[in-house]
Amino acid sequence: MSIHPILSALRRHKTGTTLIALQIALTLAIVCNALFIIRTQFEQMGRPTGLDEHHLLMVATTQSGINSSTDAGKATLDASIKADLTALRQLPDVVDAYETHSLPLSGSPWGLGIRMVPSGSYGSHTTYFHADEHTLTTLGLRLVAGRNFRSDEIGEDDNFGVLQPAVIIVSMHLADNLFPHGDALGKQIYFTSATKPSTIVGIVERMQTSSVRSSTDNRTWDSTLVPMRLVTPSRYYVVRTKPGRLAAAMQSVPAALYAQDPQRVIPDGSEGDEVGVRSFAQIRAEAYQGDRTLAILMGVISSILLAVTGCGIAGLSSFWVGQRRRQIGVRRALGATRRDIIRYFLVENALISATGVIVGVLLAFGFSGWLMGQFELARLSPVYVLIGAVTLVLLSQGAALAPALRAARIAPVEAMRSS
Amino acid sequence: MLKYYLQLGLRRLRRNPVLTALMVMAIGFGVASSMTTYTVLRAMSGDPIPWKSDKLFFPQIDAWGPDSRRNGTEPRAAMTYVDAVSMMRDHRAHLQTALYPIAPTVHSDDATQKSRTAPGQAVYSEFFPMLDVPFLYGGGWTAADDEQHAKVAVITKSLNQRLFKGENSVGRSIQLDSHSYRVSGVLDDWHPQPKFYDLATTDAFGPADQVFLPFTTATDAQLATKSGFMCVQLPDPGYAAMLSSSCVWIGYMVELGSPSEVSAYRAYLDGYAHDQQASGRFGWAPNNRLSDLPAWLDFWQVVPSQTKISFVVALCLLLVCMVNTVGLLLAKFLRRSGEIGVRRALGASRLAIAAQFGVEAGTIGAAGGLFGLMLTWAGIQAMHGLLPRQIAALAHIDPLLLWQTLLLAVVATVLAGLYPIWRAMYVRPSLQLKED
Known about the structure:
Order of helices and strands of chain B: HHEHEEEEHEHEHEEEHHEHEHHHHHHH
Largest sheet of chain A: 6 strands, mixed, barrel
Oligomer: heterodimer
Helix content of chain A: 40-55%
Radius of gyration of chain A: 32 Å
Number of helices of chain A: 11
Distance between the termini of chain B: 27 Å
Number of domains of chain B: 2
Number of helices of chain B: 16
Structural class of chain A: alpha+beta
Shape of chain B: elongated
Radius of gyration of chain B: 30 Å
Strand order of the largest sheet of chain A: 3-4-10-7-9-8
Strand content of chain B: 5-15%
Structural class of chain B: alpha+beta
Largest sheet of chain B: 12 strands, mixed
Order of helices and strands of chain A: HHEHEEEHEEEHEEEEHEHHHHH
Number of strands of chain A: 12
Distance between the termini of chain A: 27 Å
Number of strands of chain B: 12
Shape of chain A: elongated
């Protein structure tokens, strides 16, 4: 069957043809970008933090009325932290616990500059976490070189002044960043304003920083553990629970802390407060809420778009079938089979959608370029354009199928009827 | 005549139920997705204080020098304590305040109530008149209170409800951390969003502040900032060393009524930085900024790019729906070429044809709008489950949104109908009659 008569028929329906092609082009441009955005968001959300996340919870607590700038106040706070941790570690639901100011993905990143000599400019940066000898087991971080902190190495930090611990544990990403030859273990670095060096005694395989919005730079994995107890009224405890005891620990951990000090504050999430006791799953969900929402919206919009376009094509195709009843009758009377009629409409549709797809591919890359300029998105991968193109051709053929079948049922006698 | 066309249009809608339903659905979905994402966008990008956003300015002083500028040129947004206090002392604007976020613990006399942390701000007395903060009882403290480091506090209605059962608590005392403060005023509901006044250190959509203390009193009590604290050179241990350090953690806001005041204030900032350079504190030429509130919100990119992308893609969906509607309307109208031919032959003018089909398109648009309104409502309900609490609370349907949705639907459909109407107007009566 020759394409020529189809083309000349299409030329008589320029507007309708153009509209369908345009709609396919626009739909393709949007859908493949939306798919690509969804994929990017999922990639982002799926990145492991390096922690064994399933049995972790974090609880925020504040003790007021203690003047942490005096030695007596510091001693009180320090004793209170030790008592809290002892109480937490003794709970039947709990495996281990330690004190810090944040976790990967939990927000409020605290950062330091790093240099190799005690003066000059800072070549690198790191997000640091307060840690002690229980941190590795609590978080389930995998030590790939060196050793854990020893209990006699844990110092105190009142959040004022220069941070210069004698020993540190760094993420492998940071270690490779600082020492590209892979010999970071045992090397010394200087943190911001430090005059004493810090020696890398351990390297963990992977540890994400607390900031979520650092997806574009590669600082996302540059973490450091400092062997310091944070001696401040406001602090966080991170708790590893026994398997299956997370829900129970969400209750027993704050109860144990209140038993230590009834006057302390653990926000309960009411009256617009932040929530004080959060499982790591909650921390992760909050951290990626925006990405998840965007992915869902893109999914919903794409589905609507495909449905609207499919229905539109089906609607216009039926209109054309209706318009050409007489011609179809004539062709049937002249010996065309039903199959010929179906093929005619499907080939016609394929020609239109091919045109739409070609324009759509150009539009897709154009739209992607614009999005990149406006919103710092990555460049659209051609795979998604291909997926989009195939989807649209199939959708378009599917939409034209029902009207084509209806056309095939037109009896040759229709040719006799007027209009 | 219009009524007749309306009747015709309605009858027509029933005649071709499938095509009509397709168009109504397309318009409905297109409008609903645009309006749902627009509602979120509007909630996040609203002007928090529209009546004077062009009079509020946020100065930046470059206290860190060329090595630590953002993108090589931009000074830090937050200020050092030293600069903030000096500028408050100079008092060159009509109204001004330095501020930083605090989170004191509120103790209740009621033993059954647990202690809670109350988010708040350490501000100067001019904060309240500058932001037109509404008071339920009492008022802000005085400039003399600022100078004397008075132990006064302004609390919000919700905190007043919790501590004093909503009674007029002016003059009574509240316990914050280990200090007692006299309530000078109780705010009426006040939670501007985005929370523009402490953007320099805090997220734009945090919880509402519940307690306000004099800046001078707060630093006396050694209250630390609960938010952003950035240093190039870490200070010596202790609160006093932190205050005199080059760490930046304080926000600053001034009210300037006229362009001449703005340029005078710019000159003052440059003079101030020059003095610091002359005294050897800054080793670089002045590099200050003075942004009004809209520019400040823009600078902080208060609206996340994800929200903007969603809106743009939703608008694209509307565009496709309109293209779809053009095709379907064309099919619907041209199917009735015969009818048009008869009407034209009987003397109907082209304008009359245009009116008839325009009314029909408008009817479809209105139906699409109603459908879209239902979908928008569902969409916004769904968004509440997807958005952070603070933002979800802002995204809601109001009468304005209702009208905007309907209007958008009708305008979109009539725009989509322009070409089909034009084609219907130019149907040649003779040709149609001959064919029939």
